[in-house]
UniProtKB/TrEMBL annotation:
Keywords: Aminotransferase, Pyridoxal phosphate, Transferase. Belongs to the class-III pyridoxal-phosphate-dependent aminotransferase family. It comes from the Bacteria. This is Aminotransferase y4uB.
Length: 466
């Protein structure tokens, strides 16, 4: 490095507006120096002080193929030398873009037709909102504009995608959500179910609540429903039994499109290539990002189903061209990177590893945590998992938020060289390691996390004894 650590930290503190950071604590040094990340290999990253950290969250559940894969770096470099950029407006393309799009249409579940590209999950969901409006305008149903998402759903933080996100702290002080977005109950059995309510009964109740909302708003005003096959940022929560079947029956009845937000679940994380396949979803529109390039470069896509696309094409003689697109839509370096990443995903059968090593991971997580007195629930699927910490298991009561139990366990893990993420909505430790993780690495991850939890559990016992 040409600058020393102190210079980089000072320069950063003076000039970077960091996402999801308490600005004053950072500016005054209370939260310490930024971690300067210098390298990564496999499931590990390295910081400027030479510390190695196991990244059990794959960045932000995105580096699915692991860090430091030469063949992806080479594909990016090859494309940069050959043609770093050309746009895809007005029927221009590149070989990599055509190959990627053909591949995505074939890989994706259901009857998909076309792929539109962006740079982030947020902008792809912004595109999905416009596609819902466009489709309904073109087919003569201009009233069908509202989009329903779930409490605890995460869909991004741009204006529409941030509105879809069902977490108030993404809205507060930022004038969101926009009025066209409505929220319905979270598919979270542990916190949402009535005493004794089975998962099937709970799913039926959530579907009924959705139908009530559609009827209240008026079916002629509701265009789409958006959901992650498995809730991610809202707590890494697989859907309760029967959930998607019950929800889809309501959507079909009221002519409401389904947008599957596969930004986290796409390309193998749940143990299938897409979460929609695993849970029997038949989406009309699919959003992908993160795993598409394993975050080696930014790229996202809105995959458009046949039903929506046909209406768009049929209207074209009447209305002219499709007036939506970014300078970087279909960027050749993004496309080349995605092709190289998907070659690895397929060749190494990473969905298969997420299923097989994922089963082991889920079992070990339960073995290590389920009996701890401060653990309310251990949940997950494939290579995404979470441990929910509670003050009282029997009464299901949360810890006082001021105790910051989740954040402390995450920090204690970090001190042991493990990155596991403290998630919002309570005290939740989340895991989403790269999909190349091995059994031995799972043992290390679970072992270090359990040690961290025990350390904080002992501290809490001491604090309450005082
Ligand atoms: N959808 C889901 C399900 C996500 O988890 C995320 C990001 N965590 C997004 C959308 C937004 O993606 P981005 O941060 O790339 O805008």
């Amino acid at each position: 490095m040409s600058l020393d650590i102190r210079d980089i930290a000072d320069m950063d503190r003076r000039s970077v507006l960091h996402p999801f950071t308490q600005l004053k604590d950072f500016a005054t040094g209370k939260t310490g120096d930024p971690t300067i990340v210098t390298g990564g290999k496999g499931i590990r990253i390295q910081d400027a002080k030479g510390n190695q950290l196991i990244d059990a969250f794959a960045g932000l559940y995105c580096v699915n193929i692991g860090y430091g894969r030469d063949e992806v770096a080479e594909a990016i470099s090859r494309q940069a030398y050959q043609l770093a950029y050309y746009h895809s407006y007005a029927a221009h393309t590149t070989e990599e873009l055509a190959r990627l799009s053909d591949r995505l249409v074939r890989m994706a579940p259901g009857k998909m037709s076309k792929v539109f590209y962006g740079m982030s999950g947020s902008d792809a969901n912004e595109t999905q909102a416009k596609l819902v409006w466009y489709y309904n305008n073109l087919r003569g149903k201009p009233g069908k504009k509202k989009i329903i998402s779930r409490e605890r759903g995460y869909h991004g933080c741009s204006v529409m995608s941030g509105s879809m996100t069902g977490m108030s702290f993404y809205h507060d002080h930022m004038d969101l959500p926009m009025g066209l977005i409505k929220h319905t109950g979270a598919p979270h059995h542990y916190w949402g179910a009535e005493p004794g309510e089975t998962e099937l009964q709970f799913s039926a109740r959530r579907a009924q609540e959705l139908e009530d909302l559609i009827l209240r708003e008026g079916p002629d005003t509701v265009g789409a429903f958006i959901g992650e096959p498995v809730l991610g940022t809202g707590g890494i929560t697989p859907p309760p039994e029967g959930y998607w079947a019950a929800i889809q029956a309501v959507l079909r009845k009221h002519d409401v499109l389904l947008i599957a937000d596969e930004v986290v679940t796409g390309f193998g994380r749940t143990g299938a290539m897409f979460g929609s396949i695993q849970y029997g979803m038949e989406p009309d529109l699919i959003t992908v990002a993160k795993g598409l390039t394993s975050a080696y470069v930014p790229l996202s896509a809105a995959i458009v189903g046949e039903k929506v696309y046909q209406v768009m094409e049929e209207a074209a003689d009447r209305i002219g061209s499709f007036s939506h697109g970014y300078t970087y839509s279909g960027h050749p370096i993004g496309a080349a990177c995605a092709n190289a990443v998907l070659d690895i995903v397929e060749r190494e059968d990473l969905p298969g590893n997420a299923r097989i090593t994922g089963e082991y991971f889920q079992a070990e997580l339960r073995k290590a945590f389920a009996q701890m007195p401060i653990v309310g629930e251990v949940r997950g699927v494939g290579l995404m998992g979470a441990v929910e910490f509670v003050a009282d298991r029997e009464k299901k009561t949360r810890f006082d938020a001021g105790l910051k139990v989740g954040a402390r366990i995450s920090a204690a893990a970090r001190a042991r060289g493990l990155i596991a993420r403290a998630m919002p909505h309570g005290d939740i430790l989340g895991f989403a390691p790269p999909l190349v993780v091995t059994r031995e690495e799972v043992d290390q991850i679970v072992g270090l996390a359990a040690e961290a939890a025990r350390e904080v559990m002992d501290e809490l016992a001491g604090e309450t004894a005082l």
